[in-house]
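Quick one, T. Sequence first:
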Amino acid sequence: MPLFDDLADPHVTARLAAEAEAAGWHGLFVWDRLSWPAPVRQVADPWITLAAVATTTERLRLGPMVTPVARRRPTKLARETVTLDRLSGGRLTLGIGLGSDKYGSELSRTGEQTDDRRRGNMLDEAMDVLTAAWSGEPVHHRTDHYTVDGIRFLPRPVQQPRVPVWVGGYPGRVRPLSRAARYDGFFPIDLEHPDQLAEIVATLADMRHHRAAPYDVAVALPPGTDPEPYVKAGATWWMPDFPPEVTLDQVRGVMRDGPYERKEHQPWVPLP
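Structure tokens:
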């Protein structure tokens, strides 16, 4: 969900999360944006909102999808992720990506790095810091981008050996897939059809060193899209993808339709 306008109130999103959990949904993931072009006017912070969601739910997985890591300080992100993971009882999934200046020019208008390659290097270095911080051991990292001199980040997250990380990226780009193969899942952005997803899944299988380990492929599709072809192509999560101008009533309408569970030899049916 975009945390815009109707959904910019954390009380509203926290109540929605509780309703979604009661209706049988498995997760709630939110955009991480600083701004958006008109007519959007109000934008909420995803991390404070997710903390509110954690306190009103018991089993929903939650997380930003995705957070532009190069825009953040990895030491601060380490504290935020561990605190949220512990607050939620180990339910955080961290979605990461490059971010974009395309909508709202939020990178250039705030003095952030706009070169994709340089931002990608910053992302990889920041994730090195973050995964080291999650270990609880002293972190030693010194580069042009980040310096951490022997700090231990305790407590550790509930989830071990680390908080699950899903990497966001556009289909057809090698570097995001290579990055995703090192972590726990892939979130393809602007996916166009199931055949495209099948190709991504096959490429990731070839790239991954630990093929037997659990791995997620999360697809965001417009509400009402039949997810079955994407599941056959290798998707493990299906997210109804709301547009920026979505209203609270529209979200509630989709939420009331219920998540879908695939039963053998049956179509997707709403959970009771």
